[in-house]
Amino acid sequence: MTPRQRRAALVGGMAAGIAAAAAFAFLAIGENMLWFFTPSQLAAEGPPPGNRIRLGGLVVEGSVRRRPGALEVRFDLADRAAAVTVAYRGLLPDLFREGQGIVALGRIDADGVLQAEEVLAKHDETYMPPAIAESMREANATERAGAPTVRP
Amino acid sequence: MFRRYASPRHFHDLCGRLLPWLGWPCAALMAAGLWGGLVAAPPDYQQGEAYRIIFIHVPSAWLSLLVYAAMASAAAAGLIWRTRVAEAVTIACAPIGASFTFLALLTGSLWGKPMWGAWWVWDARLTSELVLLFLYLGIIALHGAIPDPRKAARACAILAIVGLVDLPIIHFSVEWWNTLHQGQTVFRLDGPSIHPSMLAPLLLMAAAFTLFFAAVLLMRVRCELLHRERRRQWVREVRA
Amino acid sequence: MGRPEAAAGAFAAVVRRDVRAALRRPAEALTPVAFFVVVAAVFPLGSGAGPATLAAVAPGALWVAALLAALLSLDRLFREDLEDGSLDQLLLSPHPPALLAAGRIAAHWLLTGPPLLAASVPVAVLLALPPRSIPILLGALALGTPTLSLAGAIGAALTTGVRGRSLLLPLIALPLLVPVLIFGALAVRAAALGVSAAGPLYFLAALLALALTLAPFATGAALAVGAE
Fold first, then answer.
1. Residues of chain A whose C-beta is under 8 A from some C-beta in B?
2. Are residues A27 and A44 in the same domain?
3. Pick from B179, B213, C40, C43: CA 20 to 30 A from residue A130's CA?
4. CB pairs A-B closer than 8 Å
């Protein structure tokens, strides 16, 4: 083996190794490794009830109910296909509002309600002045009669 | 030309001449960016005034990656050509990068508590940024532990290059995984999802931070070169 | 120099030498595994938790124990060679340092990996991991422990012969080893929950491929720096 061939073999081997790493990483990303489940993922491939999980979704408009005289809040978290009711006692983050992305940590009880120990708000990557957000919302509303346009 | 500036003495002089050209524009851009971000830019439609921390947080986070890339490039140059200047640049980058990383983590934490409801979460973005801080700290510690400066620089260079693996993980973490951290705002295929009135001060701040990095880097490189070459004639002349 | 058979022969010679030397002192060779078992057994004592809580922290505890055991054994990876001068001899040989580093790393994994895999089964039972997660645990450890040896060897080579090495090595090696810990624990946790562990396992495989490609060269270069 001449030095040139040896160098070629070395470079080829390293390229093959890095390609293999990239291929496995690509497969892994396709497998969706979750910090949280979305409601439809939970329905399709989620663990059985009773396990501690994180659930991420959008708070359904009009679903937030507070029990009078108690700290408990109930709301529905949904993605495009499924929804799960969440019950939580405690202080909600500033960004908590209807239509907002939320990640809740807790256990699903026998009634299929997620009893949350922690509720975190996920804000999106969009920043704009309130006036522009307002005019965009109006434009959206006239376009498609009030359908929520937020992404999970 | 390059060969000339690869000599510590000439590089030291060049740095001295460049410094004012970096320092003053940096101060001006920083003032303009802070005014633009804290006063002129409108509040955010969702986060109100609290979003203004991005004018510190985002440039710090960008610089934490940029400094690492600069450090690893200098490390590779130092290993290949064995120039003392490149070795000094590698070492000089580490504390600056660690500071930016720490600042990004700190401001992110201050922002996370009111917005997310938690100071810290172990999602992919935050974890990989924390690993970056540990990489910087490891490089600083390794440099401190090896007395021979040239040996120390080469050992640190190897570690810096190995740690490059973390950079794409940090950058793409918000796309590869479901993270609590939001996705890319500025570096997007469909254009930045931030209103121009907010993007302008953000870019000013990023430019100011970059100049700040360059200025501090040159100062640190000068110190490092003087320290390493303290027994040489040219350093005696500089001191005289 | 130059013929592939010669290179393969040198690699095999390094592996054989290390394995033989270790088997001559079996008690010392098994210390990392004993350490792994003890650290994992301390978790239930320290947490004082019932089986449900224990099972929740078990994946992390197991991987932390494996990582600490790897660090413990990596500390001596190149130390004796440096002290008795055989490292200089190896570096003077006509073969590239990366090849010798690869042989040394392969021997390290052969001596620590399989015993750790065997010990992980009773440890998993001690930590109340559900039995269905044990095959995934073994798979994750089989993919992850070679990466611990490979990436950790870079840190070991960089700190060989350095003052305060035993404290420096964890600081330098941990950032390189943390991804293995994260995805290894994620795989076991997914298996314990009864959901697919394919994602983290693929990621461990990706890390292994990357480490196999790069770590021997980085380790070899670090050894050359340390010896010069």
1. 29, 32-36, 38, 56, 91-96, 103, 118-134
2. no
3. B179
4. 92
Partner residue facing C178 (CB), from B131, B151, B158: B131
For chain B, give every domain's residue range.
52-185+193-239
Which DSSP string do the residues of C10-79 spell out, in sequence order? Answer: HHHHHHHHHHHHHHHSHHHHTHHHHHHHHHHHHHHHHH---HHHHHHHHHHHHHHHHHHHHHHHHTTTTH
Q: Which of B226-235, C37-46, C79-88 has the lowest mean pLDDT?
A: C79-88
Rounded to an integer, what distance in angstroms lies between the CA atom of residue A9 and that of residue B80?
Answer: 21
User: Do residues A6 and A79 share a domain?
Assistant: no
Give the number of A-C residue pairs with CB atoms closer than 8 Å.
64
Same structural domain, A82 and A121: yes
User: ∠ CA A9-A10-A14 to the nearest 5 degrees?
Assistant: 115
CA dihedral C44, C46, C52, C53 (to 10 degrees): -140
CA distance A78 to chain C (A): 21
Q: Which chain B residues are closer than 8 Å to A117 by Cβ?
A: none
Is residue A29 one of the residues assigned to a domain? yes
Query: Do A28 and A45 fall into the same domain?
Result: no
Asked if C97 contacts C227 with a C-beta cutoff of 8 angstroms, the reply is: no
pLDDT tens-digit readout, A49-78: 777 778 888 888 877 888 777 778 888 888
Put simply, whether B135 touches C (Cβ < 8 Å) is yes
B69 close contact with C: CB closer than 8 A: no
Task: Determine the distance in angstroms separating the CA of C167 from the nearest CA of chain B, rounded to an integer.
Answer: 10
pLDDT band at residue C144, thresholds of 50, 70 and 90? very high
Contact between A95 and B47 using a beta-carbon 8 Å cutoff: yes
Residues A76 and A130 in one domain: yes
Q: pLDDT at residue A152 above 60? A: no
Domain contains A14: yes
Q: Classify residue A52: in a domain, yes or no.
A: yes
Instruction: Give the count of domains, chain A.
Output: 2
Q: What is the CA radius of gyration of chain A?
A: 23
CA nearest to A55 within chain B: B178
pLDDT tens, residue order, chain B (240 aa): 556 667 888 888 888 888 888 888 999 999 998 888 888 888 887 777 888 888 899 999 999 999 999 999 999 998 888 888 888 999 999 999 999 999 999 999 888 888 877 788 877 888 889 999 999 999 999 998 888 888 899 999 999 998 888 888 888 777 777 677 877 777 776 777 787 888 888 899 999 999 999 999 999 998 888 888 888 888 888 776
Name residues 44-103 of chain C within 8 A of A (Cβ). 56
Does the CB of C218 have a partner CB in chain B at under 8 Å?
A: yes
Counting the structural domains of chain C, the total is 1
pLDDT interval class at A146 (50, 70, 90): very low
Same domain, yes or no: A18 and A55: no
Task: Tell me whether residue A152 is in a domain.
Answer: no
Among C159, C179, C218, select the one facing B162 at the smallest CB separation. C218
Interface pTM, i.e. ipTM: 0.83
Q: Which among A14, A48, A52 is the nearest to C194, CB-wise?
A: A48
Give the whole-angstrom CA distance, residue C5 versus residue C21.
24
The chains found to touch B (3+ Cβ pairs under 8 angstroms) are A, C
Nearest by CB to A93, from B116, B182, B197: name it.
B116
Give the domain extent around C89. Answer: 4-227
pLDDT classification of A150: cutoffs 50, 70, 90 = very low
Give me the sign of the Cα torsion angle A32, A37, A40, A41: positive
Q: What is the CA radius of gyration of chain C?
A: 18
The DSSP result for A22-71, as a single string, is HHHHHHHHHT---SSB-HHHHHHHPPPTTSEEEEEEEEPTT--EE-TTSS
* CB–CB contact A3 C4 (8 Å): no
Count of all residues that appear for chain B in the document: 240
Beta-carbon separation of A33 and C210 below 8 A: no
